[in-house]
Amino acid sequence: YAVGAPNVRIHAGSLQVAVPVTVTALDLGLKVIAQARGGFAKKGDVFVYETTEFYLGSCPVQRLPIVGGYLRDKLLGAQPIPEDIKVSWAKLANVAIDGSTLKLTVP
Q1: What radius of gyration do the chain's Cα atoms show?
Q2: pTM value?
Q3: Which end of the chain has fewer beta carbons closer than 10 Å to its terminal beta carbon, N or C?
């Protein structure tokens, strides 16, 4: 598979991420959009994006046990995060979505 550039927006209190995906297995060249909706939660010392919905095309992948989490992690994790953003993100005291606004709080 090949993953394109993500399209990110905040709507109705959730962060929505869409990524074009080209599945090249068996020379299919199938093009679909992977879409995730969710928010942020603190895991250990850092805030992470947690999806509540995840679709591959029109398939609700979040309903597929084991496979859903694997596909979500592979497709959304395909985009590298710059080191300076990782360092800054780790310093956040709070991450919240308020309506259509992402609020990042530093100590």
Answers
A1: 15
A2: 0.76
A3: C
